[in-house]
Amino acid sequence: MLRRIFSYMRPYRRAALLSVLCVLAESVCELVIPLLMADIIDIGVAHGDQGYIMRQGGKMVLCALCALVLGIGSARFAAVCGQGLGAELRRAEYQKLQSFAFSNIDRFQVPSLVTRLTSDVTTIQNAVSSGLRPACRSPIMLLLATGMAFAVNARLASAFLIALPTLAVLLYAIIRRVGPLYGRMQRALDQVNRIVQENLTAVRVVKAYVRGDYEQEKFDAVNDRLQTASERAFRLAAMNMPALQCVMYATILAILWLGGELMTVGRIKTGELTGILSYVLQILNSLMLLSNVFLSITRSMASAGRILEVMDETPAMADAGDPSLRVERGEIVFDHVSFQYKKGAAERVLTDISCTIRAGQTVGVIGRTGAAKSTLVQLIPRLYDATEGRVLIDGRPVQDYTLSHLRDAVAVVLQKNTLFSGTLRDNLRWGKADATDEEMAEACRIACADEFIDRLADGYDTEMGQGGVNVSGGQKQRLCIARALLKHPRVLILDDSTSAVDTATEACIRQRLSDALPGMTRIIIAQRISSVRHADQILILEDGRLCGQGTHEELLAGNPIYQAIYASQKEGAEL
Asked: What is the three-class DSSP state of 518?
């Protein structure tokens, strides 16, 4: 798992290598210092040789300065390596998300994907930035310091043969239990992100219904779960340090007791005992750092598993179309199409839909709420793929076209209109990146958006704010229609995208679309019969089934569902 994660560190291999080399050299410098100190005590102090003391002391200072410079270098290179790995992981994961179909995103849920792209990547990034140096330094210092201690006095150093295995067992027991807790902690963070995202997205609804207290209770519940999961994980991880200190301090006491006895009988010199104690402290420090590295790796593995779940997800839609194939006319055929959001679900959303939409026609789709009107048209640009049957454009299955061309040729103005942060001009150029001012003006004229753009102080340079908060719902809908028109599509789908405009403006948009783009196939989903009564063909959906098709007059004469909708809307208008 970690090998796959670290494969993204390939562009930063040089920085990683330099960091490791700096750590090796730093470790050597630090290990020489206790030997020099032992010589100062046993030779310089014992014989009163001040010159020797100064020479050896100068060497110690030089080693310390070299270790300082090398430590700074290793930390810098490790930071470059860690931050680079984080950037590469985020880039790769975000690129993977762009290939996901709606069904893939539905499986993970947006808040969880945000956590995996931010918090989980940051965990791995920090583990490398702060852990690369101790991960290399600690084993080297541990082995070399232990070896040097045995070289100074094997009898005293034998205490490590009991201490080190004891510490290894304790560390293994802690890591084995804390690993699953880190995974629970990240899942709890997913839930916190979900509540925050929902609340901020729907903040106006929350305030309008005075549900702030209710939302606060929901947040407190998931926040408490995150706190509980975090406390359990970190409480167990914190046991690592006391266990380490208990064992090592017991080892120090044993060495002092045994060393004191050996000194009384003259079998060990004071410098040797001082040197061994210096190595004990280095071993203790190395073990502390090494145990923290293991805990960091354990947490990183939980995050790495969540990231690799995204990376290993197979996009529900394969983009294997022919790049040379183009949508020329815009004729659409539904050939016995059925659809389920999840395979094996008990019910179908769409059932055995068969109909033909001729090129250049205006087709209305009407039906009660929940009739699957939006789902039907989302199969055309392959926002979803049909579970059974085929959707064809110009006689070819939609899978034969590349996704990029298909979605350029089929423009969809969805029910939920979205504008992005930036100027009005920036939002319109989502339809065509190099659109000229004249093209934008023409698209806005057809969508009747020019009526209010002229009144804006900065015109096309007006800042939209996040989500287009400074324009009304009807204005937002017209801007989204203009944005779709800039793509010059062969098929335009308006998914209830004029519901927030008045009937006069809606009629104006319909007329301008017909006059300016006569060869374009138009599919209009609407709740109002007045929005589709002039269409060349009207499709009626009921519970995911096609229950009628024809002109307004034909359906009004012979379709009971259409008659009921017409009667209810007529009665409402009269009232």
From this structure: coil
- Arithmetic mean of pLDDT, 464-482: 81
Q: 565, 527 in Cβ contact below 8 A?
A: no
Could you tell me what percentage of the chain is helix, strand and coil, using 3-state DSSP and rounding each to the nearest 5?
65, 10, 25
Q: Which residue has the tokens 């194939």?
A: 325
In whole angstroms, give the CA distance from residue 49 to residue 511. 105
Task: Look up residue 222 and give its two tokens.
Answer: 């998931």
CB-hemisphere CA count at 13 Å for 238?
A: 6
The pLDDT-based confidence of 571 (bands split at 50, 70, 90) is low
135 and 329 Cβ atoms separated by less than 8 Å: no
Enter the DSSP assignment of 273. H
Neighbour tally for 30: CB within 10 Å: 23
> Tell me, which fold does domain 2-312 have in CATH?
ABC transporter transmembrane region fold (1.20.1560)
Instruction: Give the least confident one: 51-65, 203-217, 447-461, 530-544.
Output: 203-217
Q: Encode pLDDT of 97-124 as tens digits.
A: 888 887 788 788 888 888 888 888 988 9
Give the whole-angstrom CA distance, residue 262 versus residue 155.
10
Is-above-0.85 flag for pTM? no
Q: What is the CATH number of domain 332-574?
A: 3.40.50.300
- Paired tokens of 556: 């009004």
Residue with tokens 């203790």: 284
State the DSSP H helix or E strand holding residue 242, giving kind and residue range, or none if neither: helix 240-264
Torsion of CA 370, 374, 376, 378, to 10 degrees: -150
Contacts of 78 (CB under 8 A, 6+ apart): 15, 16, 19, 128, 129, 130, 132, 133
Residue appearing with tokens 């055929």:
333
Residue 118 has phi, psi (to 5 degrees) of -115, -75
- What does the pLDDT average to over 310-331? 86
Is the pLDDT at 575 greater than 70? The verdict is no
Partners of 118 in the β-ladder: none
Domain ranges of the chain: 2-312, 332-574
CA-closest candidate to residue 378, choices 413, 427, 353, 417: 413
Compute how many other C-beta atoms are within 10 angstroms of the C-beta atom of residue 53. 17
Give the DSSP per-residue string, 351-411.
Answer: EEEEEEE-TT-EEEEEESTTS-HHHHHHTTTTSS--SEEEEEETTEEGGGB-HHHHHHHEE
3-class state of residue 414 by DSSP: coil
Tell me if residue 339 falls in helix, strand or coil.
strand
Dihedral sign, CA of 180, 183, 184, 185?
positive
Question: What pLDDT is recorded for position 390?
Answer: 94
H or E segment at 223? helix 212-238
